[in-house]
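Researcher: Re-running this chain for the archive, since the previous output was lost when a drive failed. Same request as before.
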Amino acid sequence: MRTIDDLDVAGRRVLVRADLNVPLQDGTITDDGRIRASLPTIEALRSRGAKVIVCAHLGRPKGEVKPEFSLAPVAGRLGELLGADVAFQPLDVVGDSARAAVDGLADGGVALLENLRFEPGETSKDDADRGAFADRLAVLAEIYVGDGFGAVHRKHASVYDVPERLPHAAGGLIAAEVEVLKRLTEDVERPYAVALGGSKVSDKLGVIDNLLGKADRILIGGGMVFTFLKAQGHEVGESLLEEDQLDTVREYLRRAEETGVEFVLPVDIVAATAFAADADHGVVAADAIPSDRLGLDIGPESGKLFAARLADARTVFWNGPMGVFEMEPYSHGTRAVAQGLIDSGAFTVVGGGDSAAAVRRLGFDEAAFSHISTGGGASLEYLEGRTLPGLQALED
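Model: Regenerated structure tokens:
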């Protein structure tokens, strides 16, 4: 696919599909990582005299204008980071005031459109509805740049349909993400270890299935581990459990043994009486979780075990926290895995989403990892071997 280096953008209107879906609390951005990740492409286009029109989504307003999902806080933060004014019209995606803001851009100027998902056509499954909204977006610009990696697994108007209507290229972020993911799927340097966490096995079924033929070892933590422990016949108490996935997990364990892929499961668990930071909690053996407790983190011995199984790896992909890292008592497993990635000296990829948020929240230096992805779901689907609509649309 072409990149922005292949484009002549001077004096031209360039629509950049970014991923600015940041977490908000009471209207305040709590993690601006995705905004910062979008800066290099925006600044590169500005420096070459483009009129940059940024578009993105925030949350799931489901096709309705909802002020609590406005990108206004993002516009403010983007302007701060760029050191420049960002034209923005609240609650107007592609209406008269938004078009006027775009028309008023000087060379090197930046405008941010309001939340794309205020428009039902953005996420519509109907090709005609989606296409109609894509037409309204495309008329604003002369060139399209796809740079929202976190959205490329969605067949949405701004991701899939607009590049069909305009000359297009990949931004620097998408180009970098694809290069990294190829290193995880083609000519992988071994040993190749994968650490998976998060709450549900069902969210990771496809990637586990695909990695059973590619990874050397797979470490399992987070809420999903309890389905694995139950599949082995162990008591999991009140812990998160997906009963309907037990047979699938048993099949994964059987296939792993058959193919020589090592599954590494926790040997101890931090189990609590309730889902709360101040609940009574303690470390128990992974095969002896009390029936009235729920697991909220892997235990300290598991943290050491996981770090040891990462130590000799040359390639590591991590997606999903090992516990409820937002609560300090249950953050230590995630911290141990993050430190294990750093200490391994391997090519390390943090697979976006909660994993990337954990890295920042727990105070790790982002530069200590080889790559921190901006798209958890997109990364997983790529590793599953799926075709991602947003990448397909950027290919010539």
